[in-house]
Recover the amino acids of this structure.
């Protein structure tokens, strides 16, 4: 093997940790193998998807009738706060970090992450802050109940006066989550920059790696602002300072700037890797190269850059001066351009394709349709006059669920099905997968499409009760939510039974092009170990007949024989 | 290895052009119709701002529908005609890119969103509803109008809008206090938005206007209602336990009716105003204070006109 400036062994760590178990117990150990950590992240995240989903179903049960009759309004507020927090910090971020762990090293031909122990530590912080967050259900006064954005002064009201209260634990959990995410981001960015296989220049990286890189760069820039804001909030809550407390001369709007400076880009942290998943999957199930690969790759960083200067659009009606509203409206709407480039590139890839409607492809196409819809309502929300009317109504709830669940969630399911054979060594059941997709697509549409109209008609979000004119939309939405709950059953059945008893997966069941598919299923501890291939082609060479790496037959043969 | 397919024939692909033209025309017709329907998805327009917002919304729905139907139509078309047959293991056309096409589909969205942005700036200037936000020192308890710069174009007001957990109180310049907001038709009403505890939001869907109320600040805000009726004012910024109940009505009436309401109400004694959170909180205490912690509601405001929460509202 020739030594190049990309030599991954420069950063190679001792691996695996001596004495680490190699049976199922490894998923419950401090294991430094990125693939184990990836599955740990995804498994834990899916558990919390169920928790967050159950909270949501109680909420939708409350909202199936106009009055607040199922739970006390204070309980409802705690439920929606925890639903949002659990879904973001315990489902979405962990599940995407799981994909990063599984895919970044295998896709770039690295033996592991740059800092394997840091990686494991970052993962084990997730159960720690999950415990902190969920223990708040049992403190006097209940969990945080001021929304996942925790705006002061509501969030610093602390009615019982205890030092340890739900809000305190919430801030602590968010801060630990931030530390964990920063640890992850440093690791992912370093790995991508320093540990690519020989020959893999930036424009030979798969789009998933590009998007993960762009997303993790955003984490590094944005998260310190949120963490700083959270710490100031903690001081206001517990130690009587007045950063945001109006009685002491603080400004509650300042917190909103800290919060959204990170929390808007956080959406791109989550959606960018899903764009990566879409790009990987559309090519393989269309059997075509990704149309405009370089445009798609670079658009990720344009989204990162623009994503950092749009946060004020969450504050169009908080007393923001006209010049600032107009400026941020323009940057917000510009986001439509790089995302549009991606969407058109995927459509271009479908042109003249040989489409295979497997479960992952169904989730990709379903997610793509929903993303186009959510993107259009996003442009509407970006324009100040419309946002002033529909901001903080159910229109916003509907829009961001179209992005957060109907796009990102669909992308995650697509990714799980697609890479399931690679990382578990077993095939999933296609029939159950298609039932899962059908129920999810119908349930998600019923759940969130009608809520756009409720919002346009003026139904505020975060309400435990509402005027009777909104009843019909809410009944349909609740039916959709319960359907989504039912949809998780075939998914769980599929994953559990396939992993236990599914057919053995070949190395490359989808005939996909990519370094990870040149590995056996499941890949060995250090991926390519000392035989790291030299990349000679751009990714996605479907129909071009060019080998991806030097001596490709050797790797194919080895992966099949393993 | 080169592709086994022959490259597409040169010359104008007439059939393709015809398909594109016909489908674009259909898409445009559908989108135009949907943009018309979009007006019906909003409450009745009841302020001078509403038509501007509604027109912009209709335009955005039209463009959005055109894009959505176009893209989804393309996906469906691909699914119908570009599916791999069973056991077909071959690859699709290995097209890697087309710079002209890529530049085109970068420029077109750019032009569309910039046009929309500049149109929205124009609408913003038309609305011009937001007066300056002034810091107001709660500790010194200055008079709000001493710090707020008033809207010089106002016909009536400034009406103080005081939001609390969880009630609305409206104080008119002559001292009349009310739980419901009365406004005369076609007059520019100016408000001083004040919050005594947490963030609230002054949101009247029929007026298409919303403004957060920031504790510690006074915000001067103006609205011109254009339609008589009883409209819903909703707190749109989460404000704690009984947030969803923090609603009241805005009654838009003729100038005569407004004036007579004002003189009549001025003579009425102060009574407890509308405060739906208070009764719910009392019920909660009676039932054993179950549920998660909440601050107790502020005492109901004392007003001349407590309003009528039972009256049906228009929008």
């Amino acid at each position: 093997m020739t030594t190049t400036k990309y030599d991954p062994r420069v950063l190679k760590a001792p691996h695996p940790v001596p004495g680490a178990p190699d049976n199922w117990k490894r998923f419950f150990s401090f294991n430094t193998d990125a693939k184990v950590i990836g599955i740990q992240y995804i498994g834990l995240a899916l558990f919390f998807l169920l928790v967050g989903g159950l909270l949501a179903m109680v909420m939708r049960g409350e909202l199936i009738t106009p009055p607040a009759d199922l739970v006390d309004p204070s309980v409802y507020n705690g439920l929606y706060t925890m639903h949002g927090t659990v879904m973001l910090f315990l489902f979405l971020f962990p599940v995407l970090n799981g994909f990063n762990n599984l895919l970044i090293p295998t896709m770039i031909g690295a033996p592991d992450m740059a800092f394997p122990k840091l990686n494991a530590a970052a993962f084990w912080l997730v159960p720690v802050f999950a415990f902190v967050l969920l223990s708040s259900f049992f403190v006097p006064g209940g969990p945080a109940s001021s929304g996942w954005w925790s705006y002061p002064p509501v969030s610093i009201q602390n009615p019982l006066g205890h030092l340890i209260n739900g809000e305190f634990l919430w801030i602590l959990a968010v801060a630990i989550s931030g530390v964990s995410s920063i640890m992850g981001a440093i690791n992912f960015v370093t790995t991508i920059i320093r540990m690519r296989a020989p020959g893999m220049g930036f424009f030979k990286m798969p789009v998933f790696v590009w998007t993960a890189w762009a997303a993790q760069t955003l984490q590094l820039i944005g998260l310190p602002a949120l963490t700083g804001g959270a710490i100031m909030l903690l001081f206001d809550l517990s130690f009587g300072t007045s950063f945001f407390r109006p009685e002491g001369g603080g400004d509650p709007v300042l917190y909103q700037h800290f919060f959204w400076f990170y929390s808007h880009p956080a959406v791109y942290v989550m959606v960018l890797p899903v764009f990566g998943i879409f790009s990987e999957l559309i090519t393989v199930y269309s059997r075509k190269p990704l149309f405009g690969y370089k445009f798609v790759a670079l658009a990720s960083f344009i989204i990162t850059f623009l994503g950092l200067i749009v946060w004020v659009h969450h504050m169009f009606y908080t007393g923001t001066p006209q010049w600032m509203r107009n400026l941020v409206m323009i940057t917000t709407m510009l986001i439509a351009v790089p995302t549009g480039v991606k969407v058109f590139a995927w459509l271009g890839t479908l042109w003249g394709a040989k489409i295979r409607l497997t479960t992952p492809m169904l989730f990709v196409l379903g997610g793509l349709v929903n993303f186009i819809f959510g993107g259009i309502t996003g442009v509407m929300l970006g324009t100040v006059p419309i946002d002033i009317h529909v901001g903080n109504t159910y229109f916003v709830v509907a829009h961001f669920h179209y992005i957060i669940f109907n796009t990102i969630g669909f992308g995650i399911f697509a990714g799980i099905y697609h890479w399931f054979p690679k990382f578990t060594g077993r095939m999933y059941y296609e029939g159950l997968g298609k039932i899962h997709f059908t129920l999810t697509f119908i349930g998600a549409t019923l759940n969130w499409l009608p809520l756009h109209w409720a919002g346009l008609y003026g139904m505020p979000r975060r309400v435990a009760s509402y005027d009777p004119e909104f009843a019909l939309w809410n009944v349909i939405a609740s039916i959709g939510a319960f359907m989504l709950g039912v949809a998780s059953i075939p998914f769980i059945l599929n994953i559990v039974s396939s992993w236990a008893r599914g057919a053995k997966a070949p190395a490359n069941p989808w005939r996909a092009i990519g370094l990870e598919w040149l590995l056996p299923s499941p890949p060995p501890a250090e991926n390519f170990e000392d035989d790291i291939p030299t990349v000679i082609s751009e990714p996605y060479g479907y129909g071009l007949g060019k080998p991806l790496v030097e001596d490709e037959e050797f790797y194919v043969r080895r992966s099949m024989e393993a | 290895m080169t592709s086994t397919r022959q490259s597409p024939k040169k010359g104008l692909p007439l059939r393709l052009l015809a398909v594109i033209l016909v489908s674009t025309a259909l898409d445009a017709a559908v989108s135009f119709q949907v943009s018309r329907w979009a007006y019906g998805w909003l409450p009745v327009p009841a302020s001078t701002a509403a038509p501007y917002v509604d027109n912009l919304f209709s335009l955005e729905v039209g463009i959005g529908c055109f894009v959505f139907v176009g893209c989804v139509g393309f996906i469906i078309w691909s699914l119908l005609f570009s599916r791999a047959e069973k056991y077909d293991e071959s690859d699709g056309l290995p097209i890697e890119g087309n710079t002209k096409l890529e530049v085109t589909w970068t420029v077109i969205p750019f032009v569309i969103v910039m046009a929309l942005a500049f149109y929205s700036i124009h609408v913003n200037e038309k609305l011009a509803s937001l007066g300056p936000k002034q810091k107001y020192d709660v500790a010194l308890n200055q008079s709000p109008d001493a710090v707020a710069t008033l809207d010089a174009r106002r016909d009536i007001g400034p009406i103080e809008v005081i939001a609390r957990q969880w009630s609305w109180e409206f104080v008119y310049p002559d001292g009349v206090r009310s739980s419901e907001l009365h406004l005369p038709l076609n007059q520019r009403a100016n408000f001083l938005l004040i919050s005594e505890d947490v963030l609230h939001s002054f949101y009247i869907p029929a007026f298409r206007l919303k403004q957060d109320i920031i504790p510690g600040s006074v915000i001067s805000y103006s609205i011109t209602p254009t339609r008589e009726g009883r409209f819903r004012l909703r707190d749109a910024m989460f404000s704690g336990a009984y947030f969803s109940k923090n609603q009241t009505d805005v009654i838009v009436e003729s100038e005569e009716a407004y004036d007579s309401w004002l003189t009549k109400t001025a003579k009425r004694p102060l009574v407890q105003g509308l405060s739906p959170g208070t009764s719910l909180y009392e019920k909660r205490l009676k039932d054993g204070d179950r549920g998660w912690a909440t601050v107790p509601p502020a005492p109901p405001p004392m007003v001349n006109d407590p309003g009528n929460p039972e009256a049906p509202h228009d929008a």
